[in-house]
Write a structure and sequence with these properties.
Helix content is 54%, strand content 12%. The protein has four helices and three strands. It has a three-stranded antiparallel β-sheet with strand order 1-3-2. The longest helix is centred in the C-terminal third of the chain and has 22 residues.
């Protein structure tokens, strides 16, 4: 069983990181990529950090105005567990809907 409930919004956020597993990204970019608001994205990012699928760091050099950004990156644990958890979730949904073969 997954350590986090894999709702559609959680899957959308995970997809951003799984598409570029070696890259760091910041929360607002996740919002823009997924079309989800910050009130949805930031709690999901916090949960993914808490279960060890993401790690965070602060920008070393900030370009532009405003505060430094908090950067998020997929961990090796997240890279190993998240895709499998998503597959299990998809199989369970298909099975419940009678699509599995």
């Amino acid at each position: 069983m997954s350590p986090i409930r894999l709702t559609r919004t959680v899957r959308d956020v995970l997809d951003v990181f799984l598409a570029h597993p070696e890259s760091e990204t910041y929360g607002l970019l996740v919002c823009q990529t997924t079309g989800l608001g910050p009130g949805t994205v930031y709690p999901i990012l916090s949960r993914l950090v808490r279960v060890g699928w993401l790690q965070t760091s602060w920008e070393k050099e900030h370009v532009g105005q405003g505060p430094k950004r908090r950067l998020y990156r997929l961990t090796s644990k997240g890279l190993a567990e998240a895709p499998e958890a998503l597959k299990v979730r998809e199989r369970a949904l298909r099975s419940r809907l009678g699509w599995a073969r």
